[in-house]
Design a protein that fits this description.
37% helix, globular
């Protein structure tokens, strides 16, 4: 297994790296881990990262956020947001998004490399199932339905699900 080297050892606000540099970093980190068939795609405000690792395929689909303007399309100082300012805000927003995504991928791969987690557990929601749907796409309706279901145990809370806090200590065997 390849160890992921910390290639971003210094703090940044996230807008000093170009979007392209962050995408390249993600690709290099995945490649260093042994992933293959790494590709990015986009459609409208959505982007996708797909890759294969071992005998698994993964697809992460994210909405790229639009930069927020103040009321009536104005800046914080009250000046009208012109095309140049809007473009700069959009570029900065994209740089911050891609930098944050790059850090998230780095963190997941570092956890895998150190044995804290498995690749499957870190990317489980994004695993592709037969039929080209992700685990997240398959399970979200089932989980939503389970929370809405009237057949679940109402428990002592009366809210339809248990709010018991799980214990972090190992359970003791009964005698």
């Amino acid at each position: 297994m390849t160890t992921i080297a910390a290639s971003r050892a210094f703090y940044t606000r996230g807008d000093s790296f170009s979007s392209k540099a962050s995408r390249e970093h993600i690709e290099q980190a995945l490649h260093a881990y042994g992933a293959t068939a790494i590709r990015f795609s986009s459609e409208g405000a959505a982007m996708a990262l797909a890759f294969a690792a071992g005998d698994r395929q993964f697809r992460i689909v994210l909405a790229v956020p639009e930069p927020a303007l103040g009321p009536h399309g104005r800046t914080g100082s009250g000046a009208a947001a012109g095309p140049d300012l809007a473009t700069k805000r959009q570029e900065r927003s994209a740089r911050k998004f891609w930098h944050a995504f790059s850090l998230a991928v780095d963190a997941k791969l570092a956890a895998v490399a150190e044995g804290v987690a498995t690749l499957e557990s870190e990317f489980l929601a994004h695993g592709l199932l037969p039929g080209n749907r992700t685990v997240l796409e398959e399970l979200t309706p089932l989980i939503d339905n389970a929370y809405r279901s009237t057949h679940r145990d109402s428990g002592a809370t009366g809210r339809g699900y248990s709010q018991a806090t799980p214990s972090l200590s190992p359970s003791k065997p009964e005698r």
